[in-house]
Write a structure and sequence with these properties.
It contains four helices and no strands. It is an all-alpha fold. The chain has a domain at 1-51 and 66-109: Helix Hairpins, CATH 1.10.287. The protein starts with 5 loop residues before the first helix and ends in a 19-residue tail after the last helix.
Length: 144
């Protein structure tokens, strides 16, 4: 049974590798790469489910009796487009975070964000009018 479905086990392993990368790494770009690997595993899984042994493309012909269903391929083509667009947005956000914080490490961004909140609270307690500027509010084109 397992030997006949080895493709499904390989695709499951590919999905788990992608999920592990997303969970275990603090680098946001590595998380995006892990998410892409996970997506590829899901795409290949659905495409493999749509394949029929001995099936042909769904083009009507006299000598063809068994057809593979085209719907999984169409859905995965749409999912690939959505996945690429999502990856592009994620990369754009990663670039913006790097410009604002100088890093793409999740823990360092969180640490800098909380230290800025504490500095703002401290400035408010002492009545300072010029509270520390939040890194995300900085203009990336302005000279420092």
């Amino acid at each position: 049974m397992i030997a006949t479905h080895y493709v499904y086990w390989l695709l499951f392993a590919l999905m788990m590798i992608g999920l592990y990368v997303v969970i275990s790494h603090g680098n946001l770009l590595k998380k995006l790469i892990g998410l892409s690997v996970f997506q590829v595993g899901v795409f290949l899984f659905f495409i493999s489910l749509g394949k029929v042994d001995g099936g042909s493309a769904p083009i009507v012909s006299a000598e063809v009796e068994v057809y593979s269903h085209p719907l999984p391929q169409v859905l995965i083509l749409t999912a690939i487009v959505v996945g690429v667009a999502t990856l592009a947005v994620g990369l754009a956000l990663g670039i913006r975070l790097f410009e604002a914080y100088g890093t793409v490490e999740e823990d360092q961004i969180r640490e800098r964000d909380t230290s800025d909140e504490h500095a703002d609270e401290h400035a408010d307690e002492h009545g300072a009018d010029d509270a520390a500027e939040h890194p995300a509010d900085r203009d990336p084109g302005a000279a420092s």
